[in-house]
Structure prediction request, 208 residues.
Amino acid sequence: MNSDPKHRVFELTDQQRHDLAQKVDAKELQATRIGFARGGAAAEASLECLHVEIPTDANGEVSCCGAKQVLIDEIREFTDAAGNPVQIRCSSSAILEMTDAPIHVHAETLEYYIVLAGKGRMVLGTGEQERVESVQEGSVILIQPGQPHGIASDDPDVPIKALLTFTPGLAPVTAPDYRDEEIVHARTSERLKQLDNANNTPAPDTDQ
Prediction:
């Protein structure tokens, strides 16, 4: 795998974002917690989370927000349209590398973002409550259910690396019927440009 950040995949394409937006929506889901499971080999290194290598080659997982390595899965049992039980491994905690996530919202999922490396900005809220916050290593952001949010790196070639937690666990993009998520803006960077132009705010200097 090429470790050069410029050759690694940190985000969905515009077409993938569009397709995902058609499949998912923010919703409260009835489910039973079955238990927890390790999310993969990198979960063995969960106490060394700064050093977890995210698989971003052709076989790696690129989720809604970026390249993702699940540390702990919550196994949740849902009921499908036919009334049958369906068990889904839902992310409880994960390491993500993100350059330009969609702005999205969850109906019932509470999240924490703990930034491990990189710097950028987050768009939080909507309407009169919408605001922009700068984030960097050490930043901790609580995302309440119903709060739109998105993150973008100051330098598109240098991702923000963060530990994310999800309560309850968030179903993968491959199980959209059970994923609590609605995409509000396809790219955080585009919304930041709109807000910067409205407020005459200069863009961050990526050379610093």
Observations:
- Residues 5-199 form a domain with the Jelly Rolls fold (CATH 2.60.120.10).
- The two ends are 29 Å apart (CA to CA).
